[in-house]
Amino acid sequence: MKMKKFLAVMAVVSMTAAMAAGCGSSEEEGKAETTEASGETDASFDSANDISVTSREDGSGTRGAFIELLGIEEKDDEGNKIDNTTEEANITNSTSVMMSTVAGNEYAIGYISLGSLDDSVKAVKVDGAEATEDNIKDGSYKVARPFNIATKEDVSEVTQDFIDYILSEEGQEIVSDNGYISLDDVKPYAGSKPEGKIVIAGSSSISPVMEKLKEAYLKVNTSAEIEIQTSDSTTGMTSAIDGICDIGMASRELKDEEKEQLKATVIATDGIAVIVNKANPMDELTSDQIKEIYTGEVLAWDELN
């Protein structure tokens, strides 16, 4: 009998312990779910760590527009433009590499075309405004630039027909559908659909939407052939000047020396999103703070005022 009582008591103790453990586990799981559902950032983020500044390569139209709009580029006494981007910056050579770099480093900051933004990173507000199409249109989000294509004065019939398609209602609908700001007062495409090949070269920021425009145009004009060579804005302009390509792409305004040799056409407006890692609690920066980060005046996240 004593043995039976002992076993019974041990069984009750075991059940009680199991229930307590299960309850504790449920509570912990509930806390984890609550934290995840609330969208809180990673508690391990240490704002005392150095900011990992990430920028684009020389020749990038996105870099050119970014440093100009944020005051990182300044003119010396002789009028020469000086890029004051910190020498400590990590340099990436494309939009996709920029995004993966920031997504993989919780202390990183970078910038990309708004049309390329996805949920792998977080876009911060700049001067209180979100990077959205409406805010760019009304001027509250000021970090924006034109998407230009550039050609020689005389172009082939098929090149002109494709440009006409880009600037048409159909082409501008593709621009808008892909997250960029389309042109106003456009008309339906009414081209002649000529035969021939077009070579397009330049900006990696424009390439994604240009691929979509190419795909749609080739369904309309099956006699055309289009090759897109992705590089950077400066290479695109140089290639157009040298006759290596028919159309150059530049995600910035053309330089004076480029304007002397090429005809520029704006095909869209694009915002530049300032991005951080999703674990970063920072949701907003001022233009001055971004400038201080990229010129190396501010080195750690907790130095931002």
UniProtKB/TrEMBL annotation:
PROSITE patterns: PROKAR_LIPOPROTEIN. Residues 23-60 are annotated as: Disordered. Its main location: membrane. It holds the Pfam family PBP_like_2. Belongs to the PstS family. Keywords: Lipoprotein, Palmitate, Phosphate transport, Signal, Transport. The gene is pstS2. It comes from the Bacteria. This is Phosphate ABC transporter substrate-binding protein (PhoT family). It comes from Faecalimonas umbilicata. InterPro entries: PBP_domain, Phosphate_ABC_transporter. It is found in: Cell membrane. Part of the ABC transporter complex PstSACB involved in phosphate import. One of its GO terms (cellular component) is plasma membrane.
